[in-house]
Hints:
The complex is a heterodimer. Chain A is an all-alpha fold. Chain A has helices at about 5-35, 40-50, 55-65, 70-85, 95-130, 135-150, 155-170, 185-220, 220-230, 235-270, 275-285, 290-320; strands spanning about 90, 95. In chain A, strand 1 (about 90) and strand 2 (about 95) form a beta hairpin. The model of chain A has no long low-confidence stretch (mean pLDDT about 80). Helix content of chain B is about 70%, strand content about 5%. The mean pLDDT of chain B is about 80. Chain B is elongated and about 95 Å long. By secondary structure, chain B is mostly helical.
Amino acid sequence: MGKAWLRDYIIRRLFYAVIIAWGILTITFILVRVGPTSPADKYLANLAARGEEPAQVIAAIEARYGLDKPIHEQYFSYIGNLVRGDWGWSFSTSMPVVKLIETHWIYSFQLILFSTILAALIGILIGMYSAVRQYSKTDYIATFFSFIGISIPNFWLGVMLILLFSVKLGLFKTYYDTGIPLLSLANLKQLILPVITLSTGMMAGYTRYTRSAMLDNLRKDFVRTARAKGLPERVVIGKHVFRNAVLPLVTIIMFDLGSIVFGGAYLTEIVFGIPGLGRISFNAIFADDYAVVVAVTLISAFLILLINLATDIAYAYLDPRIRYD
Amino acid sequence: MTKKGIKRIAGKFGGIKNLILILLAALWLLTLLVDTLVAGRIFTPLGYLYLALGIVFLIYVAWPLYTSRRLVGYYWQRVKVNRLAVVGLVFILFLILLALIGPLFTPDPTAANFEEKNTPPVGLSIEESIYNAETGQFVTKVVNGTWGHPLGTDNKGRDLLAMIISGAGVSLQVGLLATGIAVALGTFIGVASAYLGGKVDNILMRFTDIMMTFPFFLLLVFIVFIFGPSLAFIVLVIGLTGWTGVARLIRSETLSLRTREFISAAKALGASDGRIILAHLIPNVVSLIVVIATLSIPGVILAEAALSFIGLGDPAVTSWGMVLRAGQQSLDTTWWVAVAPGVMLFFTVLAFNFVGDGLRDAFDPRSSV
């Protein structure tokens, strides 16, 4: 088995990734340009609101944003700046956007990390159990709760958890405290409610996916053969069925990370006041701070691009049955 | 014009149904043009969306359903077996009735009345500290829920029931309209991509990849932030960004249909690409479209609710997300304001999920999850 096709495949995937990255940059550029107000307008309005004279700085700002240049030059300088790592200036926090993101990404990361691990562990376990004992009482209960889990709006769940555990019972603080060091038990404690909020929907989704993937494989011929050979049920389920079900699951978990989890984390951070990327984007919206909103959207899209790329390549390595031509 | 003449012209457009569709679409465009050029509105922006989707609905859903009543009866028998799907359907019908009739019996959801603020729902009572100006002291008073405000009021004295009913209307409008746009667009792109293949397929699918790489909700937030919130615009944006998943599914389904014999037969008989797509391919993916549409509605409703919740909703209408936002800000006093809209959202989403699952099982018993 030659590895040449794999190399070609990776090169092609990288090429596609570059095209997609270019598409993402272009679409955001067009949206910002076509929008009824330009970043400079909002900046000027902000200055005027503070009682400063916009006329004095108008030329400087136009030069800063390159608005006096023709549109294609603006486009190239926009992409050039982003590639060079100049993501603009956040005037509401008075620091470069890159710096702002450097100080805040860790809060989003810890939330998403803990939630995904918790959801994947519990979801896959319940899903496996549910599939092995199909149509049992446990299966019905698991299916019922997974229906509830995928239907419950996560931002509302967060508000309800705060109402019950923080306001009524007083077990937790109503707000995330940034004074607590990240690597401490107290930080873990204040992450409990946000992690439950974010992981409930994911957990329900993974339960359903695992259950159906396991059921698909349980009906296959090789499972019957394995049982006929007299292998213990533990080995049949753990090795033959689960190993075949797990690869599509990984893809789904990775895909979810992009499409659902980032949006969910955005809302969870807003509900609990966690100062991650979602929260800074939320604050920037109300300060009309363009650069930050653009940056958070771009970063999430690029992260998803990388995650998808990594998943695809890992998939090609791990599953010998797959051939892409 | 003679009957034969009409038939001949209609034949060029792929049948009488498509001719009607094209004429209606032209009429719609014309009114839109007149509306934008001439001062004084004919319809609101939302009205145009309703009209456009109404046309598509009549031709692609209502008319086929009417002409194949026997088949509909058969599928209804199969959906009926699924108790949860029926319950979900009943709840959705109840919600539609609530949104249509409710506003006639409830007060204005935006009318503040500070005399009656912080009233709990019927059957509950809370203790409230009230400042007495004469004695200069706080007096604890028990406030009981009244039938005047069955679900209570918020901290501005607005009637919660009225707000919930208004929110039901907003959620249904957004859910149905935006899903309609997304599904129509996704179907068109998916079918065109699979049927035309080659370069078109490549370009359309790369574009789909780009759109899918944006996290859906963050893209929504980004666009609404730039262009400003209005309900019609939010509907349009959700519709124009939410088609990617639909396009992928429809494409893979069409790819397997494309090689089937009836398509070759239609081609051999000299049917045009447009006719094959509209008259042969799309009718064959309708059951899939119906299932996808039903299962997409919850996501769309939640997206709008989340937008209003973070303060990017249309400020002119009272939606569930907005009520929830108000509720979170006064969680320690009027907690019921935060509970009610979420409960409604939850049951609405659950109902559409139940119905969608029921429909999928009815159309394809093999793919039960």
